[in-house]
């Protein structure tokens, strides 16, 4: 009984000593999303991070994007990475000014939705129970099955995560290469997945991603939404994973056809030309 009450008191002290600033990344044009997340997070307040819009903002002014990514990475993908970096820089500035408590940043994209109403309690528990070397704790990932324990398995989605000062300092010092979901795993940051998801990304027809394209000509695009994410930019045209997959399949079929039939056709043409009288 004594241990039980001691644990409750200890947890309360930990929670009180943790200051968590919530940052929501939101484009100026997405007012409806902002309204929804305000309602979802209520009564907790947050700091809005004006997101960078890849289709309109001039991305050449940012010097923390490597040269190849400026040319080959889709603009909205770069903008997403720059927006996350902006949110982390805002958190880092606030954390450095706060010396009274350990300040952590809860970074959310504006389509993040708490799975339960007591999400902040679960966020505090995530901090309390996490391994001591954590620098980022992911609170959402693609798998809907609880992982059961903290782990470092690389997962996609960066809809919701906790970050501390050490992780933030590492993050802002590294350049942007590609999708933020993948980039984060190559920044030498200690990342753990929370044992269970606290947030989930809202997936529906009315809540599309700026990092997706839907091509009616591509059968993969119609049947597998996950393949609609932009993967490559070439000569200012952007291509999705579905586009690259279709291109590879077409190349494979052309190669197979040429190997089994094309060579024969060329040989017949060569024999025919050799049989013709020379002038």
Q: Would you kindly provide a brief summary of this structure?
A:
This protein has 279 residues and is α/β, with parallel strands linked by helices. It has two domains: 200 residues, Alpha-Beta Complex (Spore Coat Polysaccharide Biosynthesis Protein SpsA, Chain A); 67 residues, no CATH class.
CATH architecture descriptor name of the largest domain: Alpha-Beta Complex
CATH class of the largest domain, named Alpha Beta
- How would you sum up the global shape? elongated
How many E-type strands? 10
Write the layout of secondary structure elements.
Blueprint lengths: L1 H16 E9 L4 H11 L5 E4 L16 H6 L2 H22 L5 E8 L2 E3 L4 H11 L6 E3 L21 E4 L1 H9 L6 H4 L7 E3 L5 E3 L17 H5 L6 E5 L2 E4 H35 L4
Parallel strand pairs: 1-2, 1-3, 5-7
Antiparallel strand pairs: 3-6, 4-8, 5-6, 9-10
How would you sum up this structure, described in words?
With 279 residues, the chain is of the alpha/beta class. The protein has two domains: 2-201, Spore Coat Polysaccharide Biosynthesis Protein SpsA, Chain A (Alpha-Beta Complex), CATH 3.90.550; 213-279, no CATH class. The protein has helices at 2-17, 31-41, 67-72, 75-96, 119-129, 165-173, 180-183, 219-223, 241-275, and strands at residues 18-26, 47-50, 102-109, 112-114, 136-138, 160-163, 191-193, 199-201, 230-234, 237-240. Strand 1, helix 2 and strand 2 (47-50) form a beta-alpha-beta unit. Helix 4 crosses helix 6 (165-173). The longest helix is centred in the C-terminal third of the chain and has 35 residues, at 241-275. The mean pLDDT is 82.
């Amino acid at each position: 009984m004594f241990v039980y009450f001691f644990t409750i008191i200890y947890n309360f002290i930990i929670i009180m000593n943790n200051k968590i600033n919530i940052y929501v990344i939101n484009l100026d044009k997405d007012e409806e999303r902002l309204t929804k997340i305000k309602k979802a997070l209520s009564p907790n307040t947050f700091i809005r991070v004006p997101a960078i819009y890849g289709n309109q903002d001039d991305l050449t002014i940012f010097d923390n994007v490597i040269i190849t990514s400026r040319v080959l990475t889709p603009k909205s993908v770069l903008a997403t990475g720059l927006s996350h970096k902006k949110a982390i820089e805002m958190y880092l500035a606030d954390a450095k000014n706060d010396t009274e408590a350990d300040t952590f940043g809860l970074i959310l994209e504006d389509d993040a939705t708490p799975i339960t109403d007591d999400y902040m309690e679960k966020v505090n528990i995530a901090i309390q129970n996490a391994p001591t070397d954590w620098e980022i704790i992911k609170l959402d990932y693609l798998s809907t099955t609880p992982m059961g324990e903290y782990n470092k398995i690389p997962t996609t989605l960066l809809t919701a995560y906790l970050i501390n000062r050490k992780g933030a300092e590492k993050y802002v010092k590294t350049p942007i290469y590609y999708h933020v979901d993948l980039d984060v795993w190559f920044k030498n940051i200690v990342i753990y997945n929370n044992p269970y998801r606290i947030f989930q990304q809202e997936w529906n027809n009315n809540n599309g991603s700026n990092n997706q394209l839907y091509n009616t000509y591509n059968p993969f695009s119609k049947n597998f939404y996950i393949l609609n994410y932009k993967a490559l930019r070439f000569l200012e045209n952007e291509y999705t994973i579905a586009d690259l997959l279709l291109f590879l399949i077409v190349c494979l079929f052309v190669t197979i056809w040429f190997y089994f039939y094309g060579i024969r056709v060329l040989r017949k043409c060569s024999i025919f030309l050799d049989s013709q009288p020379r002038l």
